[in-house]
Design brief:
The protein is mainly α. 56% of the residues lie in helices and 7% in strands.
């Protein structure tokens, strides 16, 4: 039998290039080799969007269409909605007895996210909610209720997975060897930078290229992309490694064309405007197949709902089987 791989995405907005190169490409490979569960984590999205449920609900369908558009196959991937699996919430309650508040507060990923959300939680995190602080516990329930064996993560998510493993070891030490201890599958792709040169591409930073962006939007964004600030005139030599235009050429253009871009840039034989126009064409060529597939799902929204319903049914069956074993072990199988 294929090993179970589980991953999840928060439905807070459409997917951008960072999602595609950081995770999407790996998903396309994984769907061929594993029993793949893909969670649309709407409950987790509500931990910091609790006052905007319409946004979360809308993006459940938006992010699903994006994932289907990049080529994920619903015959190979179980797409499911987190809130429709009540066993996750139930298991989160059970796990909450196994984790101390101080341990959650020390989790590096949680600390970093609190720091990034100063406006929401205050500069010292004094307004942090119970749900936000406890989301690593919920994430452990996500993983273990489906017997997740392999979890795709980036370096920044490793503390969350280690927290899950701690919970599994604690549970098994008390109730017997019931749960599987998940292992990470690290992405071999570094985080994609934003148009402004920021180390992270994100919607909150306003520096992202989205998979749904049309040709005119792509043109506007790339024409504003950061280039080497030391290049003043068109014929000045420049450092391509300081230019976001060259950075994106490496992602979406051919190796041959990218090498030409690099060489001409260093010699001062390439102007920034011409280089951006070439990137616009390459970017649109890269995105066009994704746009076409997405349009098919846009025109058949009932199919998207059917895909989510079918995947959720598979996930529900798996979660019920796991929960029966857990309740048996905990002596609460009344």
């Amino acid at each position: 039998m294929k090993k179970i791989i589980l991953t999840g995405l928060r439905p807070t907005g459409n997917l951008h290039l960072g999602h595609y190169f950081g995770a999407g490409q790996n998903y396309l490979k994984m769907q061929e080799d594993y029993d793949f569960y893909l969670e649309i984590a709407d409950v987790q999205a509500l931990t910091d969007n609790f006052d905007n449920p319409e946004k979360v609900r809308k993006n459940v369908y938006e992010i699903t269409k994006d994932l289907l558009a990049i080529g994920l196959d619903p015959n190979k991937v179980h797409f499911f909605i987190q809130s429709k699996i009540p066993e996750i919430a139930e298991l989160t309650v059970f796990y909450s007895n196994l984790v101390t508040v101080s341990r959650l507060q020390r989790n590096p990923t949680v600390k970093n996210e609190i720091a990034q959300k100063k406006e929401l939680f205050g500069t010292n995190g004094e307004s942090i909610t119970y749900g936000f602080l406890g989301y690593p516990v919920s994430q452990a329930a996500d993983i273990t209720v489906f017997d997740g064996e392999l979890i795709p993560v980036g370096d920044d998510q490793l503390p969350l997975l280690e927290q899950c493993r701690e919970i599994v070891r604690k549970f098994n030490s008390i109730y017997g060897n019931i749960l599987k201890e998940p292992q990470q599958v690290l992405s071999n792709t570094t985080r994609v930078k934003g148009l402004d040169g920021n180390e992270k591409m994100g919607k909150s930073l306003g520096n992202a290229i989205y998979l749904i962006d049309d040709e005119e939007t792509i043109k506007k964004k790339i024409m504003m992309a950061l280039t080497d600030t030391n290049k003043i005139k068109k014929d000045d030599p420049a450092d391509p490694d300081k230019c976001m235009v060259y950075y994106y050429h490496k992602l979406v253009n051919t190796i041959e064309n990218t090498n030409t871009v690099c060489s001409e840039c260093k010699k001062g034989a390439r102007g920034c405007v011409a280089c951006k126009k070439e990137l616009i064409e390459a970017m649109n060529n890269f995105l066009e197949p994704i746009r076409k597939r997405r349009k098919q799902y846009e025109e058949n929204k009932d199919l998207v709902k059917e895909i989510l319903d079918n995947g959720t049914q598979v996930a529900q069956n798996k979660a019920k089987d796991t929960m029966k074993k857990i309740k048996d072990a905990m002596k609460i199988d009344y």
